[in-house]
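User: Show me a protein chain along with its predicted structure.
Assistant: Here is one chain, sequence first, then structure tokens.
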Amino acid sequence: MTKPKVKRAALAYSGGLDTSIIVPWLREHYGCEVVCYCSDVGQGGEELSGLEAKARKIGATEVIVEDLRVPFVRDFCFPALRAGAVYEGRYLLGTSLARPLIASRQVWAAQRTGSDALAHGCTGKGNDQVRFELTYMALAPQLPVIAPWREWDIVSREDALEYAAAHGVPLAQKKGYLYSRDANLWHISHEGGELEDPANAPPEAMHKLTSSPDKWPNMSEKITVGFESGRPVSVNGKSLGPVELLETLNQIAGRHGVGRADVLESRLVGMKSRGVYETPGGTVLHEALDDLCRLVLPHDLLRTRLELAPRYADLVYNGLWFSPLRRAMQSFFDTALEVATGEVSVELFKGRCVAVGRTSPQTLYRPQLASFSMAGYRPQDAEGFIRLFGLPLATAAQRGQGTQKSEEITTPA
């Protein structure tokens, strides 16, 4: 495959091992200038500290750092929450949601700086390469993509560390500490190292957002989350913006160890992989909103949301955020949850969160109908309803001369 002629490449830069060594590698192998695009999606000050200075030190021509915390939570996490999106029943899509936002802003940075190529540090066997490149294809299909992990002879993290040392790239990561982590406001993921053996339990010291069991409070804690049309807006009666709300829930739920998930998942590229995820605030929000939906949505709408949620999650996991199908499905979820306004009380206790109370001005629950009292209800109406509902059964029975095979009828012992 012929290499494209590149004058300036816009690199999605995190300051971690892979993207740091890519800067000198691009200059060496493509002879191009490198624009490092960095985004703050809530990964924390430790990762962002000194990022621009470090990028320039290792050869970046230009560095762009953007604070994307609000759009990440408001425009990516919360829409997926309204969709009830959970991949394979366990993974709340933290990394999957951040990648299309980062890649879309990287495209913007490339256009702003006159870059004629896009580059990323995703490995050749992971999902993120797909997520980045499908976003590029949706927004800037004319720009060539450079994916060093599919070109260079580096095959392991040990190799990458050696390359960094040889090229004067400063790194916090050392041999013997080889977890691959991705953090943002929604979650933190842990992969690699001893986790590559699925028989190994996750080391307790590995966790960052959730406290260890020996520190979990011995008393449960109840919190109340408020929603407007499926959008989280308050905690314990206090109105909060998207970022502050999620930070608050992360802190409270994390203290109780809520939101851990040890997942053997099916990667899009065809293999099983293991990730350990911590999503404390997101876990509370999913529990609360799902419970609110049961209060305010009619059965057919609730059932359809539950049926479509896994398909939506697959689209997000597979990098198809900007696809017409994802956008169309989002319109359905947003419309369906226009009535999802109210408050849900959630109890947190030793790693668990359970909805225990809910109120809504849009409630479909009527005590006078649900109670054992017959006031305001005509039980006689049930006779005709049952007769019509059971008509297909009666018709089928008549077709068989009104008899059943003996083996189909259970008899007393």
